[in-house]
Amino acid sequence: MMIMAQSNMHIILRLEINKQQISFGEIATSIGNAGGDVVALDVINEEQDTTIRDLTIKVNNKDGQETVTQAIQSLVGVNIKHISDRTFLVHLGGKIEVRPKLSIDNREELSHVYTPEVARICTAINEDPSLAHNLTIKNNAVAVISDGSAVLGLGKIKPEAAMPVMEGKAMLFKQLADINAYPLCLDVENTEDIIQIIKSLSPAFGGINLEDIASPGCFEIEERLKNELNIPVFHDDQHGTAIVVLAGILNALKLVNKDLSICKVIICGIGAAGISITKMLLKAGVKNIIGVDKNGAITRVENYENKMWTWYGENTNPNMEQGSLSAVIQDADIFIGVSVGNILQVEDIKKMAKNPVVFALANPDPEISPEKAKPYVRVMATGRSDFPNQVNNVLCFPGIFRGALDCKASIINEEMKLAAAKAIAATIPEDELNEDYIIPGVFNKSVVSNIKKAVVEAAHDTGVAKN
Ligand SMILES: NC(=O)C1=CN([C@@H]2O[C@H](COP(=O)(O)OP(=O)(O)OC[C@H]3O[C@@H](n4cnc5c(N)ncnc54)[C@H](O)[C@@H]3O)[C@@H](O)[C@H]2O)C=CC1
Ligand SMILES: CC(=O)C(=O)O
Ligand SMILES: [Mg+2]
């Protein structure tokens, strides 16, 4: 299996160069020898003896940055004036904005969009609230809501700190599915308060995408909102992830020629994503799933405070396997990690059955790095964009909401989720499937349209579509 180099960090160095003492070629060679790759160059100022240039340099990681800057500092005639990180630069001022759809240039136009004429629209909606779907942004607006309690694999961080992820999701909603999504990070701890706040916000939105809310609270929040609101509520980390995982597994099993029903599947991290993936795989026909969390395998003989784990023990692990991840992974066909980084060892993979399939999906660091796992697995996937086979909920949420909003579905039900998973899997023609291509890429334009079509069809078939 081919693995791309992990080279996702770009630094921008502003260099003051004394042209009498050193040429740009010598600097570039020195950067190259230190493991950096100059990918862009801007001339900021040019004088007779000196020039100031911004160099964008690709490096492998923080250590790579250090090596490159040290190499430049050792050169005579070069002064590093400033170092910046491209990832920080693209976040300056945030990643999204709100723009008007039409421009207002005179008082007459103003009177139509704003007072006094707008009052007629308000009155119409007051008389028939369903008109809000057509006469406001509502039907193409999704709230991306987090309380910052389980952000990526970073755990509980401040709501402000969760914003970059939610802005990123909002950006992808717009770019991939033309949906206006708003990042809303709530400074609330209590489940009931979160539910009430989201209910109060809901009139402005056509759908609610819950994001990075820790388990087990996320289950109650989603369940209550689904019952108490008449717009789709979707916890992305649960269902978006489960849908994409099922799509990836369906395609991976075609390559290894195994049937879901005979596979032993280990799911590591029995939180929001792990529980939803389990439910989806059980529905798809997997019989032997073993869930592993911090204290080892979940079984029906243990007493758990977390009632989802009690359900889990009763509905999985038919052979009552007990012990650590290393113990229960013996002879497993599939490993799915949605826990934390670097907890799976090569020695564990070696114990798996022939042609192991490993989805190490924790973000930002997978349960095992693809470089380490590579020689021992048949199919490897991560949640990251810098390796092949990106199994990430970004493949699902734009398309599933596009479909749900277009047909004005009241909920996103199980049939719609299964249809989405099959649509993602079927996006890759069978003769193109290979170990590095079991899941379509995020920028494959067919993904959103295929999901949307399948989801609208399933919504109509199950009677939840209004359009
Ligand atoms: N690739 C993708 O699309 C997605 C990836 N994820 C990743 O999956 C991970 C979990 O996300 P959520 O389910 O939302 O969080 P969560 O907080 O609901 O669940 C995480 C679970 O992992 C368990 N865990 C922690 N350390 C563990 C260990 N050493 N061994 C086994 N289990 C351990 C926790 O006890 C918890 O039950 C995160 O890293 C997240 O970034 C989540 C959603 C989508
Ligand atoms: C991808 C995502 O939603 C997560 O890692 O939480
Ligand atoms: Mg998430």
TrEMBL record:
<dbReference type="Pfam" id="PF00390">
    <property type="entry name" value="malic"/>
</dbReference>
<dbReference type="InterPro" id="IPR036291">
    <property type="entry name" value="NAD(P)-bd_dom_sf"/>
</dbReference>
<dbReference type="InterPro" id="IPR045213">
    <property type="entry name" value="Malic_NAD-bd_bact_type"/>
</dbReference>
<keyword id="KW-0479">Metal-binding</keyword>
<protein>
    <submittedName>
        <fullName>NAD-dependent malic enzyme</fullName>
    </submittedName>
</protein>
<dbReference type="InterPro" id="IPR015884">
    <property type="entry name" value="Malic_enzyme_CS"/>
</dbReference>
<dbReference type="InterPro" id="IPR051674">
    <property type="entry name" value="Malate_Decarboxylase"/>
</dbReference>
<dbReference type="InterPro" id="IPR012302">
    <property type="entry name" value="Malic_NAD-bd"/>
</dbReference>
<feature type="domain" description="Malic enzyme NAD-binding">
    <location>
        <begin position="238"/>
        <end position="460"/>
    </location>
</feature>
<dbReference type="InterPro" id="IPR012301">
    <property type="entry name" value="Malic_N_dom"/>
</dbReference>
<keyword id="KW-0560">Oxidoreductase</keyword>
<dbReference type="Pfam" id="PF03949">
    <property type="entry name" value="Malic_M"/>
</dbReference>
<dbReference type="InterPro" id="IPR001891">
    <property type="entry name" value="Malic_OxRdtase"/>
</dbReference>
<comment type="similarity">
    <text>Belongs to the malic enzymes family.</text>
</comment>
<dbReference type="InterPro" id="IPR037062">
    <property type="entry name" value="Malic_N_dom_sf"/>
</dbReference>
<dbReference type="InterPro" id="IPR046346">
    <property type="entry name" value="Aminoacid_DH-like_N_sf"/>
</dbReference>
<feature type="domain" description="Malic enzyme N-terminal">
    <location>
        <begin position="93"/>
        <end position="226"/>
    </location>
</feature>
